[in-house]
Specification:
The complex is a heterodimer of chains A (252) and B (327). Chain A has one domain: Rossmann fold, CATH 3.40.50.300. Chain A has 9 helices and 11 strands. Chain A has helices spanning 42-49, 66-72, 88-93, 108-120, 136-149, 166-181, 193-199, 217-220, 223-230, and strands spanning 4-13, 16-26, 31-35, 56-59, 73-76, 154-158, 185-189, 202-207, 210-215, 232-239, 242-250. The termini of chain A are far apart. With 327 residues, chain B is mainly alpha-helical. In chain B, α3 packs across α13 and α4 (89-103) packs antiparallel against α8 (166-176). The longest helix of chain B has 34 residues, at 44-77. Chain B is globular and about 65 Å long. The model of chain B has no long low-confidence stretch (mean pLDDT 89). The chains are: A alpha/beta (252), B mainly alpha (327). The interface between A and B is medium-sized, with 32 and 23 residues. Chain B: InterPro entries: ABC_BtuC-like, ABC_transptr_permease_BtuC. Chain B: Pfam families: FecCD.
């Protein structure tokens, strides 16, 4: 069973090829870290998968009707938009949008998902606070909770942990890894390779206009790939406390 | 029904009744209402049914239209400074009306002016939709709206510039100030069907506007069809604002101030703001139309002038409050 299959996907933005011939599939229990240098096309790939940018090739999600897609995959964009001073609870409840039909309001089942998402992200104390008045990190946590409340088999998040403190970064990655253990799948774009190595079951490395490497962290974070795509050297070791990854020097 | 809905509905009902029973003829409220519902002899039933009822109904309809369209526009653009006139509908409707006055079409038959205004609004909105394109971000819609508004305003000035005599010019200027005086049930029947279509369209936008709180990308990924939402918004606004401008002229500030004022009372949720602003807009226009009759009854104070006079300071106050919150 696959939750997402992408087949020879190519994206051109303003006549400039950004991604060409990208193919991969994601199944249950996978926590995929999407890594790559700035401008490698991580955001573009995620948006193309969802059908939000024009592309050629096939993505199983982009092919779905909009509402079905909203039930199949949750998407947390990099831009942390909260346009109106709504309460945190209201914000998280927006994640239930694809599950509501007609004029029907939010049901008890919907509310249960909202409560669970708030608890998972440790936001119970903030639920009645105005979302726009929270700190940037707290807003990010609320927006992750919104994506969790969508309760989809696949969660896609674009740099969700950027700007979070270490504790929140680790617990957010643990939440994602936990979703994968439940039998869901997560695709998360991330710049912190250390957290990616520790919490992701699989890494997809974007570079040179396509997928440069795809596999378990050990197979992707090789000295050769790091030098070729990221232009860094790194210390990567397996310790008693799990994998430890530390970039060291720029090699270019 | 929430407490806010009850309070706003009660306010609208009271203002509607007050609008029915306010006028130059010095009669009691009771006899006014009995003449309206039961008829009877003398001029009073005629005054009630042919003069005051259409005036009160138009105030209700136009206020609700402007409030609803304002809330929808602010929700879509995610900007509290948006207002329904932004997409050029009121400007192009005004141009149609001004052309009707200038060419004598307005004098030739009763519905000449409102029909010309509707034609103007329709042309304007089609141009905006063509310019903005079927897809694309909200910014293209704003730019297209600004372009069409500017063009309509320039052409309106040109008509004024070329008007044959000062009387024609002053007729145009007074019409553009907006008023509900001397309207008939014909105006109600002309505007109502169009407004109902627009109300129904705009009322369906609630869920999509709520989702847009998270930005266009997130909303689209949650299954909201943005292209359809935008089309419904623009066409719905064109119907309600075009019809409102056609029968009453330009009435500003209602669509801007009312949603802004009510937003904190509905927890800032765009869907709940839709109906709240419709009620609030109706209350504001009914109150303003009462005021023009009570403040300077003999000078024919224009409704649009009063809403701007009241609206601008109110808006300044809101800015001041926002500034204090941000500090």
């Amino acid at each position: 069973m696959t939750l997402l299959s992408v087949d020879s996907l190519s994206v051109r933005l303003r006549a400039r090829p950004v991604l060409s011939d990208v193919s991969f599939s994601v199944g249950p229990r996978e926590c995929v870290g999407l890594i790559g240098p700035n401008g490698a096309g991580k955001t573009t790939l995620l948006r193309a998968i969802l059908g939000l940018v024009p592309h050629s090739g096939h993505s199983s999600l982009a092919a779905l009707p909009p509402r079905d897609r909203g039930r199949a995959a949750a998407w947390m964009p990099q831009a942390r938009d909260i346009a109106w001073p709504v309460s945190v609870e209201t914000l998280v409840a927006l994640g239930r949008t694809p599950h509501l039909s007609g004029l029907q309001g939010i049901s008890d089942a919907d509310r249960a998902h909202v409560d669970a998402a708030l608890t998972t992200m440790g936001l119970d104390a903030l639920r009645d606070r105005t979302a726009t008045r929270l700190s940037g990190g707290e807003q990010a946590m609320a927006l992750i909770a919104r994506a969790l409340a969508q309760d989809t088999p696949l969660l896609m998040a674009d740099e969700p942990i950027a700007g979070l403190d270490p504790a929140n970064q680790i617990s957010t990655m643990e939440v994602f890894a936990g979703l994968a253990e439940e039998g869901r799948a997560v695709i998360v774009s991330i710049h912190d390779l250390g957290l990616a190595a520790r919490h992701c079951t699989r890494l997809i490395l974007l570079g040179e206009g396509g997928i440069a490497a795809d596999g378990p962290p050990d197979a992707v974070l090789t000295p050769d790939n790091l030098a070729r795509i990221f232009h860094v050297s790194a210390h990567y070791a397996h310790t008693a406390q799990g994998p430890v990854f530390q970039p060291l020097e720029v090699t270019r | 029904m929430s407490r806010l809905a009850l309070a706003l509905s009660a306010l609208v009902a009271v203002l509607f009744a007050a609008s029915l029973t306010t006028g130059p003829s010095d009669t009691s409220t009771l006899s006014d209402l009995s003449a309206l519902f039961l008829g009877g002899d003398g001029p009073l039933p005629l005054v009630m049914r042919e003069i005051r009822l259409p005036r009160a109904l138009l105030g209700l309809m136009i206020g609700a239209s402007l409030g609803l369209a304002g809330a929808a526009m602010q929700g879509y653009l995610r900007n509290p400074l948006a207002e329904p006139g932004l997409i050029g509908v009121s400007g192009s409707a005004a141009l149609g009306a001004v052309l009707a006055i200038h060419t004598g079409l307005a004098a030739a038959f009763t519905l000449g002016l409102p029909l010309a205004a509707l034609a103007g609004a329709g042309t304007g909105v089609l141009l905006v939709l063509m310019l903005a394109g079927p897809r694309g971000a909200s910014i293209t819609l704003i730019l297209a709206g600004i372009a069409i508004s500017a063009l309509a305003a320039a052409l309106t000035s040109l008509v004024l510039n070329l008007s044959p005599n000062p009387y024609a010019a002053s007729e145009i200027v007074f019409w553009m100030m907006g008023s509900l005086a001397d309207r008939s049930m014909t105006h109600v029947w002309l505007a109502l069907p169009l407004m109902v279509v627009g109300w129904v369209g705009l009322a369906t936008l609630g869920r999509g506007l709520d989702a847009l709180t998270l930005g266009e990308d997130a909303a689209e990924a949650m299954g909201i069809r943005l292209t359809r939402l935008r089309l419904t918004l623009v066409v719905g606004t064109a119907f309600v604002v075009g019809a409102a401008t056609a029968v009453a002229g330009a009435i500003g500030f209602v669509g801007l101030v009312v949603p802004h004022l009510l937003r904190p009372l509905v927890g800032a949720r765009p869907s709940r703001l839709l109906w709240a602003s419709a009620l609030g807009g109706a209350a504001m226009v009914l109150a303003a139309d009462l005021a023009v009759r009570l403040v300077l009854p003999e000078r024919d104070l224009k409704l649009g002038v009063l809403t701007a006079l009241v609206g601008a300071p109110l808006f300044l106050h809101l800015i001041y409050k926002t500034r204090a919150e941000m500090a």
